[in-house]
Amino acid sequence: MLSTLREDVRAVFQRDPAARSHLEVFLCYPGLHAVWGHRVAHALWRRGLWLPARWLSHLIRALTGIEIHPGAVLGRRIFIDHGLGVVIGETALVGSDVTLYHGVTLGGTSLARGKRHPTLEDGVVVGAGAKILGDIVVGAGSRVGANAVVVRPVPPDSVVVGVPGEVVRRSATAHPAPGADLEHGELPDVLGQALVSVMDRVDALEKRLEGRLAPEPHPHQPTAGAWKWEDFVI
Which domains, and CATH codes, for the chain? Predict the structure, then answer.
């Protein structure tokens, strides 16, 4: 148990430059408290003590602002940064070395019992406000951009952005070390790139049209300053 607590604290230092001391992390990180509380609630849940498990998770939610269903399975070295508004559903499976920012939802899309929440494999980073919905898998080492809504499976080592979420880049390199791939500023601007591409295409088409459709004089249009009898004939 103590080794797990130390491992969780080290994970915070690896992924949060604001952490200054072990005591600060121990006392002032609600994401860490939520994970620790969930481990106790999950142990109760597995033993069939469903009501005490739910009550404990409810208490943790009130204290931290983070809602983790006691039935969810969390791996090692999970880091929930800030954490307010994070929701993790009952059948969610979260691998090791996963990072979740505030406002993340791992939600379900079905009323049927059984697996209905997402699976996040090892090393996944989910940006602030992102929603991952349904029984889908986000592959190891992937990054989900802030406010993305992911409803389809994501291959390993991918970058997902947008609504609905689209894979915009994949890396052939091995998985990065834990905490090394948190550069959310490097996520591509898919909408901006699409608009630039459309404008370039429009400019090219306008130039082609200007060359092919040069204006020609009307056959009955008089020259400037000249009057003709035909102009007055109805």
Answer: 2-187 (2.160.10.10)
